[in-house]
Specification:
The complex is a heterodimer of chains A (270) and B (289). Chain A is 35% helix and 26% strand. Chain A has ten helices and ten strands. The N and C termini of chain A lie far apart (44 Å). In chain B, helix 4 packs parallel to helix 12 and helix 10 packs antiparallel against helix 12. In chain B, 43% of the residues are buried. Classes of the chains: A alpha/beta (270), B mainly alpha (289). At the A-B interface, helix 2, helix 3 and helix 6 of A face helix 8 and helix 9 of B.
Chain lengths: 270, 289
């Protein structure tokens, strides 16, 4: 077998805050196959989001992150890429959907213009074809009257609608890998289900790989094939989703599962 | 606007707050109307001015009359015409200088704010050195060194006001750059230049607008003050500060010779202050910072 789609070896990440080094990823190893859906679960601070950002080399603003190890994506080591090369890759090869759709869109630009911009940059489309494609994308993620709505600003959309817009933007350039970082945490439960269904549908239609980051086991259950459980910067357990649910091996995974409130089981003992 | 005012405003019931917002818009409207009047007078100056501003007549220090609405000066030139034409020079220097200062302030402030770190430190410390001088003293020094011509005046004023604008640009950039939508934009491959110009600057614009308006007011004052001291555009071209200086000795004989240019200076300065205050209220700058 040739190189896997995504091969991560010994990925480390460290921040420097107030002169002190903080290691947040302690050498992760994992692979992803093309088109595979994988879930990353863990508590706050376990390193799930940093893992996603490390793949895209996005450091939280005002901090500098030092990455080590290797991230081989479609045969290329991304850690060797220059910032300019990464800019071309972001959005076109790997795209990301963020947690809070309320703040993740530029409030001063219409949603259409924000998607147009991406298409013009990555696909080299001119204004009109870009707008046509934008409308198509908005329709695809379930926004009615897309041609008219494209000229609306983010504040004219509800939270769920904005997340749909974010998803439309993320898939606009047919990325091979979509990273969804807690895409439903900021949404109502009913809207959560819709958004998850949409992600699932798009993944199937477009054949892209999906990395779903969450702290909510309920979210990943029907969504992914494989789960990685993270704890304090390490992957403590990885396996098919059914096995993780039915027979968690690691103590931490069991604790995490027990932390999910259930209707059908007696109160979990600690 | 003090903090206490803002708090009471915020606690007020909704209808009152809406009324306050209308009041702010009204203030911006007044400022814009005053600005429009000034622009019309200056742009159409040569067409409107009743006399050649440099034409002398034996009828010196005349009081207001039907021929000379604002009287004449010590060598019989029509004061109204000189005001209108003189305003052109003053406003030209002001506007061009502030545009230059704004351009420099934007480049320096955005660079310092966005890149941060050592670059930020170097830029801001150099600007602090300029900032440390009293504006007027620095302006006198530069004009005296370079010579009082219009381009030199423009350059001087631009240099003097760049640090203030750069600071006002930098401060909101520092906070806006860490907002979610900037990271989201970065995650879809937006280039750094577009990130700064389209995703950061538009959200940082309110305090900049207010400061530009205030700087225009200050600049008019500085330009006329320099002219008053004889460091303005050389005669015989009229300018407000120069008119004031010439007329000073005849103040008791012909009060209008002083009152007219002084009034023009007050009007122009007030225009931008009204505009700045209106914008500040309307855009809620105090609340955002």
């Amino acid at each position: 077998m040739s190189d896997p789609f995504l091969k991560v070896r010994g990925l480390t990440a460290a921040f420097t805050t107030r002169g002190r080094d903080v290691q947040v990823l302690n050498g992760l190893d994992f692979d992803m196959a093309a088109g595979e859906a994988i879930g990353i679960v863990g508590e706050s601070g376990s390193g799930k989001s940093v893992t996603a950002r490390a793949l895209m080399q996005l450091a939280p603003e005002g901090s500098s992150i030092r990455l080590g190890g290797s991230v081989t994506f479609q045969g290329q080591d991304l850690l060797q890429y220059s910032e300019r090369q990464m800019q071309t890759l972001r959005g076109s090869q790997i795209a990301m959907v963020f947690q809070d759709p309320m703040t993740s869109l530029n409030p001063t630009m219409t949603v259409g213009a924000q998607i147009d911009d991406m298409l013009r940059r990555h696909k080299g489309l001119s204004a009109r074809p870009a707008r046509d494609r934008t409308v198509e994308l908005l329709e695809r993620v379930g926004i009615h009257n897309a041609r008219r709505r494209a000229d609306d600003h983010p504040h004219q959309f509800s939270g769920g609608m904005r997340q749909r817009v974010m998803i439309a933007m993320a898939i606009s350039c047919d990325p091979a890998l979509l990273i969804a970082d807690e895409p439903t945490t900021a949404l109502d439960v009913t809207v959560q289900a819709q958004i998850l269904r949409l992600l699932l549908q798009l993944r199937e239609d477009l054949g892209m790989a999906l990395m779903l980051i969450t702290h909510d086991f309920g979210v990943i259950a029907g969504m992914v094939e494989r789960v990685m459980v993270m704890y304090r910067g390490d992957i403590v357990e990885t396996g098919p989703v059914e096995r993780i649910f039915d027979a968690p091996e690691h103590l931490y995974t069991r604790a995490l599962l027990a932390a999910v409130p259930r209707l059908d089981a007696p109160e979990a003992k600690p | 606007m003090s903090d206490t005012d803002f708090v009471t405003d915020d606690d007020a019931p909704l209808p009152q707050r809406r009324k306050a917002a209308n009041g702010d818009r009204w203030m911006v409207g007044l400022g814009l109307a005053m600005l429009a009047l000034m622009l019309i007078l200056t742009l159409l100056g040569p067409l409107i001015a009743p006399y050649d501003p440099s034409m002398t007549s034996p009828n010196s220090l005349a009081p207001a009359s039907a021929q000379h609405w604002l009287g004449t000066d010590s060598i019989g030139r029509d004061i109204l015409s000189r005001l209108i034409i003189g305003g052109r020079t003053t406003l030209l220097i002001t506007v061009v200088a502030v545009c230059l200062a704004l351009a420099a302030g934007l480049v320096l402030g955005l660079t310092a704010g966005y890149i941060g770190g050592a670059v930020d430190q170097v830029i801001m410390r150099v600007l602090d050195v300029i900032f440390a001088f009293p504006v007027f003293l620095l302006a006198i020094a530069v004009v005296a060194a370079l010579g009082p011509t219009v381009p030199n005046l423009i350059l001087t004023i631009a240099i003097v006001y760049t640090p203030i604008l750069a600071r006002v640009v930098r401060a909101p950039v520092l906070s806006v750059k860490s907002w979610d939508h900037v990271e989201a934009a970065r995650s879809v491959g937006v280039s750094e230049f577009r990130l700064v110009t389209r995703h950061i600057l538009p959200l940082a614009i309110s305090p900049i607008l207010v400061q530009v308006s205030l700087t225009l007011a200050n600049t008019i004052f500085t330009v006329t003050a320099l002219s008053f001291l004889g460091l303005g555009p050389p005669p015989p071209d009229p300018n407000w500060g120069g008119m004031l200086a010439e007329a000073r000795q005849f103040m008791e004989l012909a009060p209008l010779t002083v009152i007219a240019p002084a009034g023009a200076i007050v009007f122009a300065t007030l225009t931008f202050i009204v505009l700045a205050n209106g914008l500040r209220e309307m855009l809620d700058v105090a609340g955002k910072r």
